[in-house]
Amino acid sequence: MEYLKHAPRTDLHCSVSQIRCAQLCSKKYEYRYVLGAEAEHRSPNLVLGSAVHEALARYYTVIRNGAVPHPEGVLAAYSDAFDAEAAKEPAVLLDDGETLGALKDSGVALVKAFLGEVKPPDKVFGVETAFACDVIDPDSGEILEEQLVGAFDAVVEDAGKLVVLEHKTAARAWSADQLEYDLQVGIYQAVTGADLVRLQVLTKTKVAKFYVHDLVRTDAAQVEAVSVVCRVLKAIRAGAFWHNRGWQCKDCEYRSRCGAVPEARTAAGDAPA
Amino acid sequence: MDQEKLRLLTRPFADIKSRPGRNGQSIQYIEGHAVVARLNEAFCGDWSFRVVQHDVREGEVIVLGELRAGDMVKQAFGGSEVTRTREGKVVSVADDLKAASTDALKKAATLLGVGLHVYAAEEPPAQVRTGPKLVEAHDEPDVPATNRLTRKQAEFIGKLARTAGMGKHELDEQSKLQFGKSHAFLTVAEASAFIKSLSAAAA
Questions:
Q1: What is the pLDDT of residues B139-192, one digit of tens each?
Q2: How far is residue A106's CA from residue A229's CA, in Å, rounded to a whole number?
Q3: How far apart are CA A135 and CA B126, in angstroms?
Q4: Which of A19, A73, A119, A247 is deepest in the core (most CB within 10 A)?
Q5: Helix (H) or strand (E) holding A259
Q6: Nearest residue to B92 (alpha-carbon basis) of B102, B80, B103, B104
Q7: Shortest CA gap B108–chain A (Å)
Q8: Across-strand partners of A157?
Q9: Other C-beta atoms lying within 10 Å of the C-beta of residue B96
Q10: pLDDT in tens, A85-108
């Protein structure tokens, strides 16, 4: 991909998750990254997702080291990671009736669903593989000051193909539109030149489920993804931050600060006075 | 100057005013009484200010002021337009001189770090790179007011911080203290001011 050039990491950078944060709500981006505001709480989804990621990283690390992963070891990695995440400050914001124990159990179900259905790849090249790229604006040819950085959950070979693995925990199965348009997939394919990006989604449904989506983006879609990154970075550079009220406000770590506390809303969903 | 005084002096102001400036731009400023209150807070009232020189010209008055606090002496110029009635009659040179004195005091106080974050944001970069040629900043109307720092500035700030033994968290806290935001999101001008203060601290 001619618009993302691998380069040594510099002090001015932005990750794909930061770009997604800015897309979802640029005001949240401002609070978190620009102002460095303290979070009011920790999202249970973040705690659960981080711990599940850790467990899956253990699974692929064991394979990379030439051994066979034991379910007990992977589950122990999850348990340790969850406990460590849950102990961090600020406290986890739980829903009414929800407990940390129940949250932890739901993660155990996710890891078990993964272990029960995942097919080990032929070869694991890397786990949590970091990258840094200079970004070239496809529309102007300008090299942006900010680099794009990140880490692939795993890079593997499967059936003779170079595959980037990305793990997601979600409330429900990803929709066709999500799979079609997810920004990260296009970026990751552009960065690596991989044959495909394999999205492995674990859903926190009543019965935990494991979905595998092999996704391929066209060249045009990859260029569009880079262009989106450029536009977002330029908006950040220009200091354009605005509120984007919606479902994302419920668990937002800055909801009091920006006046989006759900309890302050009426039953009809009116904005607070 | 001890760290506590520096922290008090450089603490960002919540009440920042703005007024129209040249070329349709908006200029941010801090009122004189807020600067006086900040100096009183930091030095417990033990500071002084005097006008060293003043000059009344056709259209403006100019004042050279001197601020003393402890063993520190800072001088700065201040100015004010001569206020006239519609008929062109001078209203009060004394009031204009008072305004110029306040301006000099505020400018001198910035040398101690008071309101530096506001004035840093007002100073345009000397030159802005746009494609292959270099142009003066005021010739480039598309440069956003919050022009984010460059990669080189970010790297230099990181280098200065490492030299001073500061970690990323400490660096961001210092940046937030002085400018109200993380160091990676300073403007070009703010980054320049931050580099100066980090260099001064290192020296």
A1: 334 444 457 898 889 988 998 898 888 897 889 888 988 889 899 999 888 898
A2: 34
A3: 26
A4: A19
A5: none
A6: B80
A7: 28
A8: A123, A162
A9: 21
A10: 999 989 998 878 889 999 999 999
Q: Is A8 on the interface with B (CB under 8 A)?
A: no
Q: A150 and A15 in contact (C-beta within 8 Å)?
A: yes
Tokens of B16: 């920042």
Please state, in angstroms and as integers, the Cα–Cα distance from residue B173 to each residue in B159, B178, B183, following that order.
16, 9, 9
Q: Helix (H, G, I), strand (E, B), or coil: what is residue A14?
A: strand
Q: Lay out the sheet containing B72-81: strands in order across.
A: B47-56, B60-69, B72-81
Q: Return d(Cα A96, Cα A196) in angstroms, integer.
A: 41
Q: What is the pLDDT of residues A152-187, one digit of tens each?
A: 999 999 999 999 999 999 998 999 999 989 999 999
> Is A192:A156 a contact under the CB 8 Å cutoff?
no
> Rounded to a whole number, what is the distance in Å from the CA of A11 to chain B's nearest CA?
5
pLDDT of residue B20: 64
Cβ separation A11–B182 shorter than 8 A: no
Q: Is the peptide bond before A272 cis (omega within 30 degrees of 0)?
A: no
Residues of A in contact with B182 (CB under 8 A): 33-36
Q: What letter would DSSP give residue B14?
A: S
Any residues with CB less than 8 A from the CB of A266 and at least 6 apart, and which? Answer: none
Report CB contact under 8 Å: A238, B144: yes
Phi and psi dihedrals of A100, rounded to 5? -65, -35
- Radius of gyration of chain B from its Cα atoms, rounded to whole angstroms: 19
A236 to chain B, any CB pair closer than 8 A? The answer is yes
Which value, to the nearest 10 degrees, does the dihedral of the CA atoms of residues A198, A204, A205, A208 take? 70
Burial class of residue A56 in the structure, from the number of CB atoms within 10 Å of its CB (0-12 exposed, 13-18 middle, 19+ buried) = buried
